[in-house]
Amino acid sequence: MSDTATTTRPAPKAAVILTPGAEARIADLMSKAPEDAIGVKLSTPRRGCSGLAYSVDYVTEEAKFDEKIETPGGTFYIDGASVLYLVGSVMDWREDDFTAGFVFENPNAKGACGCGESFMV
Asked: According to the per-residue pLDDT averaged within each range, which of 24-28, 71-75, 84-88, 97-101 is highest?
């Protein structure tokens, strides 16, 4: 047996798990993206009744502390300052006859406003 045995470490898990529906929507967004867009970014700006909101926008440059997730349809970024609020979350895309949008299951959220637009941790 060799003294230089190597151990492989599993790749770190992403802060947010993307469902196939979310990945498909990211691919759709990137197919229509402005020319300078390098991906789609999730952030949690301070907004709404409960304090934080989910915001998904095109991104044109990579920020140093952003988490980067490669999906089949394009690159998905998570704002570095938002990662702590999102760890363990699942992001999905849902559509029905009346609404369409990203939906989040966030184990860090301690409450949400009545309209579902914002959350608190």
From this structure: 24-28
pTM: 0.80
Q: What is the DSSP string of 42-69?
A: EE--B-SSSSEE-EEEEESS--TT-EEE
Minimal CA–CA distance to 14: which of 71, 60, 58?
71
Burial 44-67 (b: 16+ CB within 10 A, else e): beeebebebbbebeebeeeeeebb
Tokens encoding 74: 């394009």
pLDDT of residue 106: 85
Mean pLDDT of 57-62: 95
Neighbouring C-beta atoms of residue 83, cutoff 10 Å: 17
